[in-house]
User: What shape does this take?
Amino acid sequence: MEQPKKLDLIALSSVPLVMTLGNSMLIPVLTLIEKELHISSFQVSLIITVYSVVAILLIPIAGYLSDRWGRKIVILPCLIIAGAGGAISGWAAWKFSDPFFLILMGRVLQGIGSAGAAPVVIPLIGDLFKKDEEVSAGLGLIETANTAGKVLSPIIGAFLASFIWFLPFWFIPFFSLISVLLVLFLVKSPKKKEETQSVKEFFHCVKDVLAKHGRWLYAIFATGCLVMFILFGILFYLSETLEKQYNIDGIKKGFMLAIPLLALSISSFAAGKKIGKDKHLMKVLLVYGMAILSLSFTAIRIQHSFFFLFSFLILSGVGIGIALPCLDALITEGVEKDQRGTITSFYMSMRFIGVAAGPPVYAAVMAQSEHMIYYISIIVSLITLLIVLFLIKPGKEKEHSVKPT
Assistant: This one.
């Protein structure tokens, strides 16, 4: 990989962190925010929910705009909007006696900005590199950066809040500014073709793409959603279990939560480097990843002592880490550039639905029975494995190449 392109990747790796930090950094300090603002647990959960809902709704629009106008021209303003949202939330918490509504408005802006920044990075990687193995390696690095953000976010959030409770809000504009400068000066985005389709022609083309190739595209959408549903659901479960059953909390709990995510990050990076342009290997690794995930939860159900619980949750992180860059590579390399941003954004929206749905669903299940957590995880893992086995079929290049009509 050329040195200039490595600089592009370093800059682009900062973008998913804005989206990740925007949510994950606040999770360990929600209880503190609840106490400071004298609000209910439902109200404080809205700080996460409004961000997620706005992002889910706007990600496809951002993908469409990036196909029409270019990737970089969408990413940069959205990073600025995300930073402004964080600044509004931080300023309201600092200056107002009753800042809750303005904090929510700031979080809405963060969701808008994040929706147009991080998801556009995946198709931009596909635009930047010509060789399939470089695309796969780049996507693996982006997934690694994204996961590294998940690893560090709870620790950073708890650390900042230990000084001033609203300091995590102010970290968003600070980091967004760094990302804007990196992308502005280091990313050399390919020039956008002068000829562009009309809105009607574009959506007709996307409709045709989904009609002809929907089977494997929908399968990847569903797999991404279910994998993230399991990941964030089980992280929520592990967080609750560490504190309530094993009296592990604070920074120590943050480090414990980071270990499975670190395993995910390492396996994601390794898989991204390994798969290259081999679509058959992508399918094989997807099957192995989902099989590891299913077996891990089965083992935990049989014996869920602390050692088994933690060991097999680390193994489940490995399984998810193997799968993610394969999904990214299949959907990026199988879609022509003119539709890449839009199709990829649908995939990212589905992943984000999984992120948003996992914790509340697992919380509801935990209230009924802890054993049900393992059954739900096993069932969803097996469903995902079946989808990968029977619906994702990377055959000849022409079978997985989606061309505009």
Observations:
- The radius of gyration is 20 Å.
- Confidence is low (pLDDT under 50) at residues 396-405.
- The domain at 3-184+196-399 is CATH 1.20.1250.20 (Growth Hormone; Chain: A;).
